[in-house]
TrEMBL record:
Protein's name according to its UniProt entry: DDE-1 domain-containing protein
UniProt feature, compositional bias: Basic and acidic residues: 315-332
Entries under InterPro entries matching the protein: CenT-Element_Derived, DDE_SF_endonuclease_dom, RNaseH_sf
Domain of life: Eukaryota
The DDE-1 domain, residue ranges: 27-159
Chain spans, region Disordered: 291-332
Length: 332
């Protein structure tokens, strides 16, 4: 979850309008997780490039997880850390546990699947086209939470001129906003998404876009029409002149997103990840073998050059000795 501070202001038509910025300059990601019983699990705060000032942990619970990445977004390593250090210790003792995630590939890795299976956690993805309908955080939590964070930041800027909410203090504001998220609102988010209690009719039909493409298939039971005189097949002029329906061009989907909902802790996904890991290991072994062969060729080439150099020096010394011998003979 990221933040963008946008408000309407009154300004003159001419001239530049300057407004103090009270949010962070760099991107900060807050990875949030809520449970159907109304609890907020410890989040993970991801900074870009490096950690901010050394006091960035002040004022927040000690069970929060802090991490860094190159662009400030989630990756597989950080998600595995959050799963081990934040989710498993705080998801309760009842098993199995269902973990519903969005469709980003950073949530899929072999260590995560193995850990989830070992701890009886069933992980599943929502569909790519419907994350805002099936994700309780998007349904009822993220919007009000962002507004609370932005309101607190704006109030701080108005209360004390020159105040800037830096990366080191943003998580304090987030902690204050999370404390105001009530268990009833979390349960309402799960109810609206239809996840808990399970309800297939929770999402209204008007929110779903029906398919706009229909293909008319010929009736296999209808006999072909032929002319009784010549025996040629008959066809209406419209069937000949009207072009056939064209399938819509598929939209380009990012390689890091999953196209459909699926369970990632199943045997099929585990085998696929194991095969992928084995293939990557084979590729790495092949790369190392080629590098070893190149190094051996380089060493042999250096040895051959050294041998040629030694032979050349030896020939030069023999030529010098012969010249000196001839000079001595002429002198005698």
């Amino acid at each position: 979850m990221g933040w963008c501070d946008r408000v309407k202001v009154i300004a003159p038509r001419k001239g530049n309008v300057k407004r103090q910025r009270v949010l962070t300059a760099d991107h900060v990601t807050a990875h949030l997780c809520i449970s159907a019983d109304g609890k907020v699990l410890p989040p993970c705060i991801i900074f870009k490039d490096s950690f901010p000032h050394r006091t960035y942990k002040d004022g927040v619970p000690g069970i929060w997880l802090f991490a860094t990445s190159i662009i400030g977004y989630m990756n597989t390593d950080i998600f595995c850390q959050w799963f081990e250090r934040c989710f498993l210790p705080n998801c309760g003792r009842a098993r199995p546990v269902v973990l519903v995630m969005d469709n980003h590939n950073s949530h899929v890795s072999l260590p995560l699947i193995e850990s989830a299976r070992a701890n009886q956690v069933v992980g599943g993805f929502t569909r790519t086209a419907q994350p805002h309908l099936l994700q309780p955080l998007d349904v009822h939590i993220n919007g009000p939470l962002k507004e609370k964070v932005k309101t607190v930041c704006r109030n701080l800027g108005l209360y004390r001129c020159g105040v800037n909410v830096s990366n080191a203090k943003l998580q304090v504001v987030l902690a204050y906003a999370l404390d105001q998220v009530t268990p009833s609102s979390i349960k309402e988010a799960f109810r609206r998404s239809g996840l808990y209690p399970p309800n297939r009719q929770a999402i209204p039909e008007e929110d779903l876009v029906p398919s706009s493409f229909q293909v008319q298939t010929p009736d296999e039971n209808e006999p072909p029409r032929t002319c009784g005189t010549c025996g040629h097949f008959l066809a209406h002029l419209a069937e000949i002149l009207v072009p056939p329906p064209v399938l819509p061009k598929p939209q380009r989907i990012s390689s890091r997103s999953v196209t459909a909902g699926r369970v990632i802790s199943g045997d099929e996904m585990l085998r696929a990840l194991q095969d992928k890991a084995a293939e990557e290991e084979r590729k790495q072994v092949a790369i190392e073998e080629r590098a070893k062969q190149r190094e051996e060729k380089r060493k042999r080439r250096l040895e051959e050059e050294e041998e040629r150099l030694v032979k050349r020096r030896k020939r030069d010394e023999e030529m010098i000795q012969k010249e000196e011998q001839k000079k001595r003979e002429r002198a005698e």
